[in-house]
Amino acid sequence: MLKVIAVAVAIAATTTVAGAQGTTYKSTAKPATQASTTAKPHKRARKAESQATLQKEAKISEETARATALKEIPNGTVKSSELEREHGKLIYSFDITVPGKSGIDEVNVNAIDGSVVAKQHETPKSEKKEAAQEAKEGKKTTKK
Question: Is this model's pTM higher than 0.70 or not?
Fold first, then answer.
């Protein structure tokens, strides 16, 4: 919008100067059209899929995925879990705490075939950062 105003002011100034000098200049600027003055829409974020929709798509149960995740982290306790689509894959994500160890271990289990997709340790600092990001995105995590 500011570009259109700036072009209009420049054309008006040129026309005024040319009129004052008694000469006429042909403007090479094309008239603004409605399409060029409107802002392009931002890419829309994909609608968050409902848990019911994700559950229908999952081939393995949350209980089976939980057992798989707990096999990866001996002596662990599931702090929270959620079913989500991440990087195009439908996964169960489990945050697992271990007594005597700070932070959490996150284990992602494929909700279609039951394989472990990812396993990583998150420090309290990185866990807090991730929670803030998820709150910003409006994600909810199921605490269990």
Answer: no
